[in-house]
Amino acid sequence: DKGLEKSNENLFSKLGKAMVGKSKVDEEILDELEEILITSDVGVDTTIKVIRRIEERVARDKYVSTAELDQILREEIMGLLEENNTEDLTDFDLPKDKKPYVIMVVGVNGVGKTTTIGKLAHQFKQAGKSVVLGAADTFRAAAVDQLILWGERVGVPVISHGMNTDPASVAFDAVKKAVDMQADVVIIDTAGRLHTKVNLMNELGKIKRVMQKFIETAPHEILLVLDGSTGQNAFIQAKEFTRVTEITSLAITKLDGTAKGGVVIGISDQFKIPVKYIGVGEKMSDLQVFNRKEFVDSLFK
Ligand code: GDP
């Protein structure tokens, strides 16, 4: 778990410094905590919520020891993280009653969408699943090419009609292929052009409708990819995308080499959408199924 640990390195170590020589949680410690949460991109609203709850506890119990603060914080953060309803499906397992399982992936350019799809394909394949990819981000030639490259690298079929073709037609063929070959999972890349919101909404709507010709319940998951190192931008994108379509899960990338793991806490709390995957590097294996407990533990290492 190197990536994750690195991501949260020192998140609460400053708090430890503020507590040196103290046995009781006081205002100074809470101020320090507030600053830590803000600077690690937890977001203002969530930070205020956490601080307020701890203040209430201090007021109620009169005395909260600094030793207790760790435990209280762990509980608070755990409570802020949306439960991932597939947490029991460890190691890239898939629900057995949904085959093929259809994942539609959304996100703006540069957040690591293509890489995340490639990593997912790899991890599912490693877990013994058959995978089909659909290159429905037809707006960018690079996106199509990159997905094809990932398909070759991982060894899974990629359905592509090239650039500027109809995304819904690509999605249709990808799902059809998955049904025909009885694949376990089909992952559809889509364009993330947020500046043309109505177009994007229509495009995603159409993609969904054509999938439903094969599988009424598809897509089973609409995964929004966010770059965890971009702080407030990730919040803005989450807000915009939740307006455009119904996001069911999040993948937060680039959590390696940043002490900004707080985005995970804030986004999950603000949007009530579970974080399902985290990206912790550029390699194929650098994608983890998000585990709340492991994540919270990593904040305190
Ligand atoms: P897209 O435009 O959203 O499809 O973005 P790409 O998948 O092309 O990724 C953009 C850049 O981010 C590439 O250089 C990736 O290697 C890099 N990247 C993606 N995910 C991660 C991650 O979890 N950690 C790091 N360090 N880099 C990542």
TrEMBL record:
SMART domains: AAA (SM00382), SRP54 (SM00962), SRP54_N (SM00963). Gene3D superfamilies: P-loop containing nucleotide triphosphate hydrolases, Signal recognition particle SRP54, nucleotide-binding domain. GO terms for molecular function: GTP binding; GTPase activity; signal recognition particle binding. One of its GO terms (cellular component) is cytoplasm. GO terms for biological process: SRP-dependent cotranslational protein targeting to membrane. Its EC number is 3.6.5.4. The keyword Coiled coil does not apply. It catalyses: GTP + H2O = GDP + phosphate + H(+). It is a peripheral membrane protein. GTP binds at residues 107-114, 189-193, 253-256. It comes from the Bacteria. Keywords: Cell membrane, Cytoplasm, GTP-binding, Hydrolase, Membrane, Nucleotide-binding, Receptor. InterPro entries: AAA+_ATPase (IPR003593), P-loop_NTPase (IPR027417), Signal_recog_particl_SRP54_hlx (IPR013822), SR_rcpt_FtsY (IPR004390), SRP/SRP_N (IPR036225), SRP54_GTPase_dom (IPR000897), SRP54_N_sf (IPR042101). It is found in: Cell membrane; Cytoplasm. Residues 274-287 form the SRP54-type proteins GTP-binding domain. Pfam families: SRP54, SRP54_N. The keyword Nucleotide-binding applies. Part of the signal recognition particle protein translocation system, which is composed of SRP and FtsY. Belongs to the GTP-binding SRP family. FtsY subfamily. Involved in targeting and insertion of nascent membrane proteins into the cytoplasmic membrane. Acts as a receptor for the complex formed by the signal recognition particle (SRP) and the ribosome-nascent chain (RNC). NCBIfam families: ftsY. This is Signal recognition particle receptor FtsY.
